[in-house]
Design goal:
- With about 325 residues, this protein is an alpha/beta fold.
- The protein has helices at about 1-5, 10-15, 55-60, 75-85, 95-105, 115-120, 140-155, 180-190, 205-210, 225-235, 245-255, 305, 310-320, and strands at about 25-30, 45, 160-165, 195, 220, 240-245, 260, 280.
- The strands form two sheets. The chain has a six-stranded parallel beta sheet, with helices on both faces. The chain has a two-stranded parallel ribbon with strand order 1-2.
- Helix 3 packs across helix 4 (about 75-85), helix 7 (about 140-155) crosses helix 10 and helix 10 crosses helix 11.
- It is globular, with a radius of gyration of 20 Å.
Length: about 325
């Protein structure tokens, strides 16, 4: 999700540079809601992986695209390029530098640009110009109304500042310890704030446990909303707190300031919040980074990259967060 959200500054720049162009975006069906109502895009092709790459390639071959951009750079997207044919633009993934930093802790990165700007290399022939604005996700009215109804039913955000927290992450090493989240939510409630806990269906149990400690001033919405609905809850929040996950980027894309807790990955990879009101909390440790996407467990068994970031530090970062 975060990678896709970070493509939106390029989409905006392409629309600005080529206002009459027909821009088609291809993504997995589960991520298509991120581009609903996006005025930069004319068409979204929502691909179901179960249908196979060949079916998608046949559909794309029928279209007469003048330019094709690969903004993923994965084995799957490269296979799709071979099946579709034609010339494709791509961007640097710096695999060798990433591997050297992970395995040997040698920083060979020469390209310090955020990934959102590296994507522009794929469209070099189209001459898009970055505008230094953050990513964007356009929320539809139904999502905002559903979020408002959820918050109203629980009495959240009426007379107290609403803060969104996202304790989940697909990779275990990217998750801040649950006990820290519980303590943070209690501290937020004690400081006069309300809390909405967001996340996907797979994070429902964790979100419920985190919210339970702050009830009735905290409630879990994990698994109850799609990406549009989660974005609406983030929009209605004064600030968001998240691990190094797509939810943090979603917050920046709907204009909500965010504190990001970064553990096994590092800024050199390019995935920090882009041009947004944000703060990143991290520890300078000799073992970081241990992976590019997180993993099932800390290779050294201590998880100090996140264990040592305490709730009080996060609360202070929230207090200092630009509004």
């Amino acid at each position: 999700m975060g990678d896709l959200i970070l493509t939106t500054p390029l989409l905006r720049a392409l629309r600005t540079r080529h206002p009459a162009a027909h821009l088609t975006l291809v993504t997995r069906a589960e991520y298509a809601p991120l581009f609903a109502n996006n005025p930069r895009v004319n068409e979204v092709i929502a691909w179901e992986p179960s249908s196979g790459l060949r079916a998608l390639a046949r559909r794309l071959r029928r279209e007469r695209f003048t330019h094709r951009l690969d903004l993923h750079g994965s084995l799957r997207s490269r296979a799709l390029r071979l099946l579709v044919g034609g010339r494709w633009g791509s961007f640097p993934k710096h695999r060798a530098a990433r591997a050297a930093l992970i395995r040997f802790k040698r920083d060979l990165y020469r390209d310090r640009r955020p990934v959102a700007l590296r994507y522009f290399d794929a469209a070099r022939g189209l001459d898009p110009a970055p505008d230094d604005r953050p990513p964007e996700v356009f929320l539809h009215t139904g999502a905002l109304q559903a979020a408002d109804a959820f918050l109203a039913d629980r009495g959240l955000g009426r007379q107290r500042t609403l803060v969104a927290v996202a304790p989940g992450a697909a990779q275990a090493t990217k998750r801040w310890p649950e006990r820290h989240w519980v303590a943070l939510v209690r501290a937020l409630i004690d400081s006069g704030r309300d809390v909405v806990v967001v996340g996907g269906p797979e994070e429902g149990d964790l979100a419920n446990r985190v919210a339970r400690g702050g009830a009735p001033r905290a409630a879990s919405a994990a698994g109850l909303f799609d990406m549009q609905g989660t974005g609406a809850l983030l929009r209605r929040s004064r600030a968001a707190l998240s691990g190094d996950t797509g939810v943090g980027h979603l917050a920046t894309a709907v204009g909500t300031p965010v504190v990001i807790l970064m553990g096994p990955t590092v800024g050199a990879f390019g995935f920090r919040p882009y041009n947004a009101r944000s703060t990143v909390l991290e520890r300078k440790l000799s073992c970081r980074p241990c992976s590019s996407h997180g993993g099932d467990r800390c290779p050294l068994g201590h998880h100090n990259c996140l264990e040592t970031i305490l709730p009080g530090e996060v609360l202070e970062a929230l207090r200092r967060l630009p509004q």
